[in-house]
């Protein structure tokens, strides 16, 4: 049977991030994608102009409709916006005993808009982290979650240890915003694995975090180990950024035709 994955995230009208990036990633990796929308953003390559949260009942109903009928191989969680939505998502996933959960703790868009109210941080840590197989903060998100700034590889390791103590089975701290190579670290509570690629010199990185976490979920849905899933996701995001392009007037999107860059060896 085709592997399946569910994304629980916000909608990005410009198609570069959020639900749209997640579904494109699932498809490109050969996984059947399903979605539960938490919030609708009016967004383009220049920024976010409006956000409308959906009410908790329709969010829970979307998740329930999928689980009641279809086997869910993996779940990716992106923009949650509020504490109430975060609690609803956690409770509904608990109800259906969801497995292989990837939490991307989305906080601020690349264009600077808040996608998570600061008061939702506690619900995220207390309700969702203990259920997560993997949590994938970038440097800023890791810093907000642990309460110290994360700027170096040493800081990334310290942050991964502190976040692992909150309950997730694995932490991936993403170094997309580091100086030098694009280096991410995976921590399982015992040891670190580094995933490193040359930094691609581009401004077109809209949706990189969404794409990377969805690619990890796709791998888990395909029964890869966490390390294999992160390796596949790193290969995928590197290709998607390499082939990212200028669309609109601002930060353009990544490219989701995996076959194209697979054949080209990136
Ligand atoms: N310019 C770049 N070149 C190569 N890889 C990058 C680049 N920017 C981000 N990445 C990679 O993309 C993934 C997403 O990371 P990041 O951009 O830090 O996330 P976010 O979108 O949450 O800020 C990571 O694997 C990171 O290493
Ligand atoms: C709906 C939505 N979800 C997530 C992001 C973050 O994406 P990124 O930080 O990669 O721009 C976004 N811009 N919009």
From TrEMBL:
One of its GO terms (biological process) is thiamine biosynthetic process. It comes from Anaerosporomusa subterranea. Residues 12-255 form the Pyridoxamine kinase/Phosphomethylpyrimidine kinase domain. Pfam families: Phos_pyr_kin. GO terms for molecular function: ATP binding; hydroxymethylpyrimidine kinase activity; phosphomethylpyrimidine kinase activity. It catalyses: 4-amino-5-hydroxymethyl-2-methylpyrimidine + ATP = 4-amino-2-methyl-5-(phosphooxymethyl)pyrimidine + ADP + H(+); 4-amino-2-methyl-5-(phosphooxymethyl)pyrimidine + ATP = 4-amino-2-methyl-5-(diphosphooxymethyl)pyrimidine + ADP. This is Hydroxymethylpyrimidine/phosphomethylpyrimidine kinase. The keyword Nucleotide-binding applies.
